[in-house]
Each structure stands twice: as C-alpha cells, then as structure tokens.
Design a protein that fits this description.
This protein has 509 residues and is of the alpha/beta class. It has helices at 69-75, 99-103, 164-167, 170-175, 226-235, 263-274, 304-326, 400-403, 448-465, 472-482, 502-505, and strands at 4-7, 23-24, 52-60, 78-84, 89-94, 109-119, 131-132, 184-189, 209-210, 249-254, 260-262, 286-289, 292-296, 330-334, 348-351, 358-364, 392-395, 410-414, 419-423, 430-434, 441-445. This is Peptidase S8/S53 domain-containing protein.
Length: 509
C-alpha cells in the first residue's frame, strides 16, 4: 500500500505526544483508480485527503506549451481550462473515458498527471483561553516616515509577550527605523482575517486573492486560521503585537482551505505572487509558504506510477519557483515538523522546501522563557533538519518544556500592559494574530510554519534598506554573511548557514 507523509506546517499549541507527521493511511495507488471515472470536482467545502480534483496538470517537454496543444487535447477527448505559458504548464479536464491514455501520447508533452488534494497545514488544538485584544484600548504605534526614525514598538498592548523578535535582534532594526516599509510579501496559505486590527493596516486587499474555487481570500474554517497567524509574524502592525517587518505590505494568497489544497492552487498562488503588478500579478518581492508535504519515494511506494506522478508534480513546482527567481522574487518555505534528518532519510523529498531556489527554514525555541531562560536558538524538538534540507534557522517556538521535559506546571507571564496565566510551556511558542471571534484575537503556536515567516520578515527589512532591489542570490548571500554560525562550523544540519540576525541583515550595528 502506498503511503504519503504530510508535513510543513503542522503548527500545534500543545499536545501530549511528540509531534509526528500525519500519515495518509488510505491506499493512494494510482492503478486502483479508473481515470475515466474521475469527474471534475466542483464542491471543495468537504475536501478529503487523497481526493482527485478531476483536473490534470500537463507539463510540456520544453519551457513553452506546444502550439497545437488545445486542438490536440480536444482530439484526445479533453478540454484545456487554464494555461501557464510562462512555465509551459496547462490544466485540462477529461470529456471522454479514454482521455488520459490518449493525451499521454501527445507530442511535446512530458507528462499529464491527475491533481490531488493534500493536507498541507493543520489547525492546532488550542490550550487555554484565547487571548483577545480590546480594540478600544489599543495603543497607536508611531508612524515611520523614513529609515532613521525609530519605530515605537513598545506601545503594543502585548508588549513583553513576544520573545521571538528579540531573539533575532529585530528591535535593533526597529530602533533604527527599519520596518520593511514598501516591501511586498506574499503569504501563500489559508484564509486571512482581513479586518484584524493588526493586519488591516498592512494588508493589500486589492491584490489579495484566493486560488481555491468558491472561497474568498478572507474565508476559512475554525478560529485559528493558519494564514492569519503566519501573516502576523511577518507584518503585524504593532497594535497588539509586532511583526518582524511591521510596516511591510502583505499580499494574502489563499491557496488552502482548512489546511487542504490541490497542487494547482498552490502553483496558481506562486505564479500570481511572482508576477509583477503591471502584468496582473501580485507584485511580490518575497513569497512565504508555511506549508508542505513530504514524499517518500522509496519505502512506501509500491506502485511505480505514483513515483512518476509525484516526480512530475515536483518538476512542475520547480518551474514555478524558478519563474519566481527569474522575476527577482525570494521564495521561503518551512522545513517541516517531523524531527527527521533528511541527510539520512534520502528517500524523502520535502515539497516545496526542497524545490529549486527555495530557502528552507528550520525552527528554534526556548525552554522555560518565563523562568528567564534565553536559549532562543535551541533547535525545536520537532523540526526537520539536515544539510540537504535546511538553509537557515529562525524562531518558531516549542513546547519542549512540557513534551520533552514533562513540565506541565502553570506560570504567569507579566507583560508591560497585560498578564496571563497558562501552562509554562505555552509561553515558549510564538504569539501572533488569529481569527478568533473579533477583530483583535491572538494566540500561541509552534512549528516551522512560524519560523519561515520570521525569516520572510527579516528579508523585508533587508530589502527596505536596499531600496527594495535585491535578487534572491543577493538575499541568500547577505543572510549567509550576517547569520550567526551555530552548531557545526559552516553549513550545519539544524541551522543551515546560521541563525538569522535581523539587525545585522539590515545593516544595523
């Protein structure tokens, strides 16, 4: 029986058992499916892992689509419903029973693969009461007019609750007036709470989109909303909490619903975000993807057809991330939460963290911050690692105090304006925006999903200082030069090229 491992953004607040990557236990053997019976999916409100959408991704042999592709697909009994000529990919649906067989032999086509619904993120099980910001009492942060004018982050209502920004020296950059202002960061994720008091000031609503059929970019399920938490880590404006780049512009790209999504939706999101505004795209300079799936090519794949299937989808994503790079867009992704060494587990491939030109980020976090412990760069117990996977490390939080050390005792966190009592380990996580029930709700979460947007925020700070013009190669080089070299000298399994430093990356001494 073929199995598929899911990873990337399983951001959990707390659980008794160690975090494990979810396993899709249904047999996803392509030979068991009659492709002639796959109808196009139209209702995505009750998606199930392993469902086929009824749409097929067509990958051309070259970078351009064949000139006669539309007529060839029609002759094979299908219909082209979408094209991505910039990367040589098209999307088709079947109109006859033998479409897949006939279309596979079309000249100029490398592959035609059925698209699949996967679970890319999971909404965490919240521990303790959700923390709500009273908008009427929110303190206004000082507007930044130019680099050099300090950003007053200490007026945030939850000042004193966030260890993550200080762990990478972000306040030093803010004191120098470096806030990411003018830099555009696309967050490809789930739904975005567009009226949240900390997101609304920085959210480009006009250019935020949903690639999930039937849903707007500001819709999702539950009260956490993974995309909302991630967006706050990048650029919360400082009313309640402060994002790493508190004046950066967020482009919300909803490509998942309730954590699930099709390959096509994420592909659509990458290409939209990486396309300039003048060409109808999102005009991003940075793309953050706190999402992912782990493909096991060796141990759990008995059917060769499935290996081919996912390799072709991997190539499709490579073309998308290469397109982003060619457009000058830096692509960042979470490394995953399976506590797996990818140098040893060579049969595994992490999508999209290991795709071409993607910066893959591992997670760190303290153990007992409320006790005064400042080991912020300690690798989180759940983070995936390996030189073949990790490029850099950033704060993603951890409840290792409870899970690893067994300490479930309560603690009180005393902030500048607010106090909270909860299990001590809760406060070692990352505090950020959530959907909640109002326009001002916040909560904690842990995961490489939280580390990836922290680095995205750092890159936004760098870009502001450099006038917004930094190629992905320049970004990688600057991060490598300024990150703190921890672990083994040079490229390390847990830290890659180092633990990121926001102030140094932004040129602030």
């Amino acid at each position: 029986m073929a199995s598929l491992l899911f990873a990337g953004c399983n951001s959990d607040l707390m659980q008794v058992d160690p975090i494990q990557e979810s396993i899709l236990e249904e047999g996803l053997n392509i030979s068991q499916f009659d492709l002639s019976e796959i109808t196009e999916m139209t209702d995505f409100s009750n998606m199930r892992q392993g469902d086929f959408t009824g749409r097929f991704l067509i990958l051309s042999k070259g970078q351009s689509l064949p000139n006669n592709l539309e007529s060839s697909i029609q002759n094979a009994g299908g219909e082209i419903v979408k094209t991505y000529p910039e990367i040589g990919v098209a999307v088709a649906v079947a109109r006859s029973a033998d479409f897949h067989t006939k279309a596979s032999s079309i000249s100029g086509i490398e592959s035609i693969t059925p698209d699949l619904i996967l679970q890319y993120t999971e909404e965490p099980n919240l521990v303790g009461p959700e923390t709500t910001l009273d908008a009427a009492r929110a303190r206004q942060s000082v507007e930044t007019s130019a680099i050099g004018t300090p950003f007053n982050y200490k007026t945030a209502l939850f000042d004193g609750w966030q260890w993550a920004p200080a762990s990478i020296n972000a306040p030093k950059a803010w004191d120098a007036g470096v806030t990411g202002k003018g830099v555009r960061v696309a967050v490809i994720d789930g739904g975005f709470h567009s009226t949240h008091i900390d997101l609304a000031p920085n959210l480009d609503i006009a250019n935020s989109i949903s690639t999930v059929p039937g849903f707007n970019f500001n819709q999702d399920i539950g009260t956490f909303w993974h995309g909302t938490h991630v967006a706050g880590i990048v650029a919360a404006s400082g009313f309640g909490v402060v994002g790493i780049a508190p004046k950066a512009t967020i482009i919300g790209v909803k490509s998942l619903h309730n954590g699930s999504g099709a390959f096509e939706w994420i592909l659509d999101g990458i290409l939209y975000a990486a396309t300039p505004l003048s060409q109808g795209g999102g005009g991003a300079q940075i793309i953050n993807m706190s999402l992912g799936a782990t493909i096991d090519y060796r141990n759990n794949w008995q059917d060769p057809a499935f290996r081919v299937f996912f390799r072709e989808l991997q190539k499709t994503y490579d073309r998308a991330t290469r397109y982003a790079t060619q457009n000058g867009v830096t692509v960042i992704a979470s490394a995953g939460n399976g506590a797996t060494n990818y140098d040893d587990a060579k049969e595994l491939f992490k999508l999209p963290a290991q795709n071409q030109h993607v910066l893959s980020i591992s997670s760190t976090g303290p153990t007992g911050w409320v006790f005064g412990n400042t080991n912020f760069s300690q690798p989180a117990y759940y983070t995936d690692f390996g030189k073949s996977l990790v490029d850099f490390a950033a704060p993603g939080g951890t409840v290792g105090l409870a899970i690893v050390e067994g300490n479930y005792s309560p603690c009180t966190l005393i902030g500048t304006y607010r106090t909270a009592t909860n299990t001590c380990a809760v406060f070692d996580q990352v505090f950020s925006t959530v959907r909640g029930t109002t326009n001002g709700n916040y909560n904690w979460a842990q995961g490489t999903s939280m580390a990836s947007p922290a680095l995205a925020g750092v890159v936004a700070l760098m870009m502001e200082v450099n006038g917004g013009n930094m190629t992905p190669a320049q970004v990688r080089a600057k991060l490598s030069q300024t990150a703190t070299d921890l672990g083994k000298p040079g490229n390390d399994e847990y830290y890659g090229r180092g633990f990121v430093d926001a102030a140094k990356a932004a040129g602030v001494n």
